[in-house]
Amino acid sequence: MAFVRNTWYCAGWSKDFSRQPITRTLLGEPLMLWRNEAGEAVILSNRCSHRFAPLHKGCVQGDTAACPYHGLKFDSRGQCVHNPHGDGHIPKAAHLRSYPVAERAGVVWVWMGEAEKADAQQILPEAHTGFLQAVEQFSVATGHLEVSGNNLLVMDNLLDLTHAPYVHPKTVGGAPEDSVEAGMQVGIEEDDRSITSTYFCPSMKPTPQLRPLFREEQGDFRVRMRWQPASSLAMRLSMTPCGQADGSGVVLPLLHLLTPIDEHRTHYFFALGRNVALGVPEADAEMAEFARRAFEEEDEPMISACQAQMGTSDLFSLRPVLLQTDVANVKARRRVEALIVQEAGR
Amino acid sequence: MAFVRNTWYCAGWSKDFSRQPITRTLLGEPLMLWRNEAGEAVILSNRCSHRFAPLHKGCVQGDTAACPYHGLKFDSRGQCVHNPHGDGHIPKAAHLRSYPVAERAGVVWVWMGEAEKADAQQILPEAHTGFLQAVEQFSVATGHLEVSGNNLLVMDNLLDLTHAPYVHPKTVGGAPEDSVEAGMQVGIEEDDRSITSTYFCPSMKPTPQLRPLFREEQGDFRVRMRWQPASSLAMRLSMTPCGQADGSGVVLPLLHLLTPIDEHRTHYFFALGRNVALGVPEADAEMAEFARRAFEEEDEPMISACQAQMGTSDLFSLRPVLLQTDVANVKARRRVEALIVQEAGR
Amino acid sequence: MAFVRNTWYCAGWSKDFSRQPITRTLLGEPLMLWRNEAGEAVILSNRCSHRFAPLHKGCVQGDTAACPYHGLKFDSRGQCVHNPHGDGHIPKAAHLRSYPVAERAGVVWVWMGEAEKADAQQILPEAHTGFLQAVEQFSVATGHLEVSGNNLLVMDNLLDLTHAPYVHPKTVGGAPEDSVEAGMQVGIEEDDRSITSTYFCPSMKPTPQLRPLFREEQGDFRVRMRWQPASSLAMRLSMTPCGQADGSGVVLPLLHLLTPIDEHRTHYFFALGRNVALGVPEADAEMAEFARRAFEEEDEPMISACQAQMGTSDLFSLRPVLLQTDVANVKARRRVEALIVQEAGR
């Protein structure tokens, strides 16, 4: 499986981690996710080095997790610290692969590559994740979805939001006549660290999702979608009264964090914030429901249907016809390819 | 996948095609089936050339079908005629593969091979399909079934009807003691265009299906099953009072049109006519139910069980023991093989 | 598929065989299991040599089984004895592969390898199977389970019973503090014909399964698990009042007979006897239920979870960390490997 490995992937939201282990497969590897006694998020291989039993089904006691098959105990660095059988000898090789973890603003990041290269500087900057905990400014909903498609197909979907009027006309997109046909302006910005798609629709009707939050008939609608390798997308969506300064109206910061399960499935972690109707439970529920419908009932079926029609082929090998609106996602795919080649030392 | 491609396959009954597109996979290719404004049946690749989205989920407007993902529009020849994004430029390669189609007597035929070789002369002659619309002479029921077996296994089943007394004793076959053991005569005829199996059982009890239509205790039972490459089977079944001329009693014309879905599944389109009880709804319902039971509950489970026990192996590679009654289907298989070799230019 | 073939495998319990054929896949081969008129167990290939139809769906008459597709009849040695079609000629090759069978004490054994090497001397000795029919001494319950794991993983599970306190604390194992941590002694014995694991726990609390049969607070608990190639495991479990001679208390003889379905699934035939509460229906039901829970709800999920985490890889290719308690199963695996190599003539 060809993935960028020397990068930080979202392994889950902070609330997914507790003393009770769960399992989650990332980049083809089954992992055990839990918290040690100090409350630190721990990510270890979920395959016992003895008989490959699933460790998350065992018990956690203090800082150790016990294998449910023969009772070997491993500490939170993956070292076997107890063999209950015979003379208790612990073979040298009896340790689990352990992965560097960093927890920031409610996100647990994991480094699936060479541990010695794990560099906290490369974590998605707080400028993009800070809203998750800025409770005075934003109300936030988070979610998690498994998409039956390669992670790059999900990235393509997010870096080319011109699909919104077709896939999401009743949720997070407007109708074609309100956005695309009304002259939506699409741009792209790029630097060493990121690629950003921008969209501007002056005097657009608010999308169904925005209607309860933005009560005017029309407004200026702006979206920025910033991709940072390997697969973090930070989004900012705003709607202002026509002609007024960006930020003066409704602002929705979003995160889309993609982590490969394997070559044909992807963990899709999403978060949505809003700077209005703070702390209003009905607004929370409505925003979460719009996101669920858009991502789970609209995006996911479309991406998985494309994947199904592509079979196991790589996108470029099928010679897709590319449009101007694919510039951002093609650039991002080229960067991912370069990173994979670089890691392989080719 | 090894299939004859330069031939006409049944893509569906005329009634399967409407303004609302559907998808159907033929010879491994997902297709979109619909009708343009003029009412003509249209068959295009169902994979958008941009991102491989399933086009049948989009909207048809006039003579164009719009992709449900990003709104590209294609006309009924597969040409992209509208890109709603940016400056609207349409890349040269933005067209869908389009397949030659011919509609005759309620059957929609498609040519899956080289379009320039599509030759309407090769369509199954009206002599065999005419009954479908000869409402003065025949009442007709049609059906469609997906068989979990290679198309040649279904063809084998139809070209060797000696299975009928074993598989269908309570529907379309008689009991072994009434047919096989009573001396059923099996023959074979052959010409450049076709191979025909014939069966004659003098003084046989009518099969359960025939009993309501042929009220005598016994009759002369005749069946002709004519195969034309690649996979059209036209059948004629008759029962006359003993000793009387063929055609003087009940005549049932049938069609069995087989189209590969892939190597291990087959579309089975069938039609049954009868020259008696014309326009009697109870007879229609009964005839359709007998066919459904025979094909869906008796043939299909047998063929799919054989396929399952063969795995992915080709029939001949497993060295089957062949009987005299396999002559017709072995001849037909040899012709199919020769056509595949010829198309491959080997 | 790499299996030992020149050996006797359990094909089923005697009660599984009747005049009505059933099908069961052993070592990747679909078989038809039935009894001929003399009541002898018969095992033939379930694939008709004509069109590979599943023979178990046909009819048995006297000593012949008829194919449900075209009516060919085969006798109980697999020879085709009737072709109902044409001149009735029976092609020379029209016979089914037939397998040597031996029925002993309620077990039907089958030899899946070279028939001429089938040697009844190699059948599991009566010393280990006799309890099945020693109704004066033992009450017995039998069962059959399909495990989603390679047969060697099931063998490993049985030859290293140190998993019992972790996987079965509420059924057939004691709690860790009552067995492992209380100093269970594990031994191994070996001869040309077998490998035996032994376990001795002096002064142990009875396991939940034993409590209704052994009413004292503590007792000496002994287990012997004897493996004979390729995959027969005969077990003897006893609990005596502390310090008394082995056999003076409760004795449970057990059989675990493993037959590969394919590389990743295994037929698990088990039998449990007890020398107490003879003929007490409640004790029968309770013993059967304990076994079902232990094997079906505890062992099977653990083995199939290990198999799932191993994918299609062989155990040793994944470089497991081995413990002292793996000595018996590693020795057994080495013997199985040697037998496979020897049969392949490498």
From TrEMBL, chains A, B, C:
Q: Does the keyword GTP-binding apply?
A: no
Does Transmembrane count among this protein's keywords?
no
Residues of the Rieske domain: 8-110
InterPro entries (alphabetical): Cholesterol_7-desaturase (IPR050584), Rieske_2Fe-2S (IPR017941), Rieske_2Fe-2S_sf (IPR036922), VanA_C_cat (IPR044043)
User: Which UniProt key words apply to this protein?
Assistant: 2Fe-2S, Iron, Iron-sulfur, Metal-binding, Oxidoreductase
Q: Which Pfam families does the annotation name?
A: Rieske, VanA_C
Q: Which Gene3D superfamilies match?
A: Naphthalene 1,2-dioxygenase Alpha Subunit, Chain A, domain 1 (3.90.380.10), Rieske [2Fe-2S] iron-sulphur domain (2.102.10.10)
Protein name listed in UniProt: (2Fe-2S)-binding protein
Record organism:
Sphaerotilus microaerophilus
Q: Cite the source lineage.
A: Bacteria, Pseudomonadati, Pseudomonadota, Betaproteobacteria, Burkholderiales
